[in-house]
Structures are given as structure tokens and as C-alpha cells.
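INTERNAL AUDIT FORM
Audit reference: QA-55
Scope: verify that the stored structure record matches its stored sequence.
Auditor: D.O.
Record contents follow.
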Amino acid sequence: MEFDINKFDSYREDNRREVKKAKGGLPTSLWETYSSFANCYGGVIILGVAENEDGSWYATGLQNGAKIKKEFWDTINNKNKVSHNLLTERDVELFEVDNGSVIMVIRVPKANRDQKPIYINGNMFDGSFRRNWEGDYHCTRDEVLGMLRDEPPISMDAKILEDWSISDLNKESVQAYRNLHRSWRPGHVWEMLGDEEYLKNIGAAAESKTDGKMHPTAAGMLMFGNEYDIVREFPYYFLDYREVLDPTIRWTDRLQSSSGDWSGNIFDFFFRVNNKLVKDVKIPFVLEGAMRVDDTPVHKSIREALANCLVNTDFYLPRGVVIKKDAETIVFENPGSIRTGKTQMLRGGISDPRNASIFKMLNLIGIGERAGSGVPDIFATWEQQGWSEPKVEEQYGPDRTVLTLSFLKKVAMESGDGDRKVAIENDDNPVVKGKTAQQKNMLLDYMKLGVEYKTSELSQILGVKASRCRKILTLLVEDGEINAVGENRYRVYIRKK
């Protein structure tokens, strides 16, 4: 993250910037912030600076900048203090500000997944930190284990599950998959193989070195197993589709992996949910010559988004996969951070799925992109349709990735800095009004009387950004439904009736 000394007066602390007085030398909390930035998005630490009550900064200065800089380099290269030094010389600079005070700026990059977790004091589980809007927090054991699972070049779903046999897989799911593969790739060399050899070739089974027998892989169990077996290996496994097309009804449709009336595996979930996602969505049809094409770029983008969600899920983390559809949006949520990083994901060109074997199996039946172009293609399709740009959020504590696809048309308006146009949502649009009413009701259903709630928690309930959540909360305050207590980042909301 860049830091421009000329913009010093305009900066504020957030989840990417942290100031510290450092009057007595390097503060102990510096290393917690280094760990938290490295394990999240990266960020900038500024020493010799303090906050005013309004959040603005003022320079307190360093007594001996050169000495502190040397002490910093000595400490960050000490493996007993910091697990990994991510910085180069250009990442640490001394500046003189207007009042003559010297400050030190430390630019911390986001660590690569094979470097995480970045921890301090030689203790991976007690010394790993993450960042939220309120500062640095200790990583939970699950978060540390999640980073470790992402570290090896072999994906987690290649694990052989020796407590199960091939016969434990759902035969109907396996047969349905084989039929799809046969339709997509007629005459394929694996077509005549028996189930055991076929499952081995697609990555759903492997031979154990312990007993020499064939067992399902984690990918095979997730794709073709029964939910009651899957949760024995993945206790947090949960797939949930929620549809709310009428704001007066809590759910107009719902599908859960734990319902017991279907297999509950990924393969069956994918096709059941994909059909529900494109149903009732007003997708402009495409012609090839005089013939209508039913599988449009929008259909393909929605299918790609669903596949991307599932193949990048860390099934060992809590809260499960949640797909939410309403009249104007589809939201895809999955446990796990973005392995390539959000910037690279949006740029495309690199494919690094968390569950490579599941990705391979979907690809064999024509689902998923090999070149890492899936997300950029989704953005391009939405741009062609004139819809609001998709939103990608990476959340921590626990790790979670959220992709929101909106079917609202962009409204072009002139901004104050020339002819640049920005997209806004028209609050006079009846669809937007209906959505707002629905979100207000969702928060009121969730909030208990007298309990304090932070915006960060409530925005996750709605599946929206904090800015949108604050707007809904403001409306509820104006309606007299809730109270707002405190200022800025310390503000909480309490339901009062």
C-alpha cells in the first residue's frame, strides 16, 4: 500500500493504516500490527504520529529516527521475534513533516500463502494476528490452521480418507456425473472403465499406501458422498441456498445439505442450485443466426460464480457455503480467503483453486475456467449488460469470501471532478425500496432487545458492505426501532422495541 507524505493531513486510521507515537522507541504493538497486516491485505505503519479526537493525525516525532530505523531492521530479521521478514529497504522510510518532526513509514505487503501465517515471538498459534477496522486481534486456532492448509502445493481435497470405501459414495451421484461426462465428452477414453478406476482417474479416489486399497479422496467424498458421512470428516460442512423473492416471506425457497431428503453433496447441490439461480432472472436472450441461444454469457457467468464459490471453499472452517438470491442480487459466500489475493483474482490469468481435484471434476463436465479468467469474465458480462459492477469482499475472523452480483442497472451521473461517470443505485427505484424494507426486517429479526451490535457483525448478516449496512441502520434509528450509541468506530446499535 502506498503512502504519500503530501497527503498526510487527509489520512485516517483504518484497516490498512496504523499510527503509533513510539516516544520510547519501537512499541511492542508494532509487531502485532506487522503480523496482522501481513496476514490480511498489507498496510502502512507510521511511527511518530498520534490521533486527534476527530481521527486526524498529528506528528509527535521520533527522538532518534536513524537509531529506531536500525533497531527495527535488527528486530525484524530476528527469527525469534518475527517468523518472516517481508520487507526490502525501500519499504521503510524516514520523513520530515511540516513542524520539523521526523516520522518513520513502514509499508507492509500482504504475505504470499506459502509464507503465512506471519507470527511473532516464536509462537505460531499465540503470535499470529489479523486486522479488522478496530485494530489487531489474535488469530483463532482455526484461522491459523486454515493458513497452513493453504500453504502446500497439493490441495487439501487430495487427502485419502482411509476410514471409508468406494462403496460409501452415493451411487446415484456417481452415475449422474458419468452420464454428464459422457454427454460432454462422448467417446472419452475413461468411458468404459469400471467405477473404481474411473473415480481414480478423475481424482475422486486413490490407493492408500497403508493398506493398498482404494479409498475416496476428500474431493470424492465432498462431490459424491452422503452428507452424514461428509460431516464426519468435515464437521463444519454445510451448503445453504436461500431465496427471498417476496420481502413479506422469510424464504420463498431454501435448500440445505443437512435436510436429509437428498444426498447433500457438492455435485447434487451445484445442479439443483444452478437451476434455481437462473430461474426468474430476466436474462437478455442471444441469437446465433435465427436461433435463440439459451446458454447466454449471463448463464455462464452465474454458473462460473457458483463453481468458483465451491472450489475455493475451505470446508474445515465454520459457517459453510451460503448462496442468497433475491429480486435484485445473488450473493455467493464461502469460508476461506482468496488464495491468489483479491487484486490478482480481479486481474485474472492465474488459476489457484483451493480444491483442485473438485475443480478438475467440474471442468471435465464443462464447468469452470482453467486460465483464471472466470471472475474477470463475470465483470465483463455485467458491464456489457449495463448492470452495477459485481462486488468482491474478503473477510477475516473467520476467513470468508463474498461475491455479490447485482441486476440493478447503472445510472450514469456526472461527478464533481470532470466528465468521469460513476454508477449509483436509484433510491426511487421500487426494487431498491423493496430491498431496503427487506434488509430492515432482516436486521430487526436478528437483533435481540438490549444487546449491543457492531456494524461489522450486522453487515455480515445482510451480506452487504458496511457503508450499505450503516444506511439501513440509520433508517432504523430514524424509525425509532433502534438506538445508536457512541461515535465513529466505537458506535454500537441496540434494539429498543
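Auditor finding: record pair retrieved intact. The chain has a mean pLDDT of 85.
Action required: none
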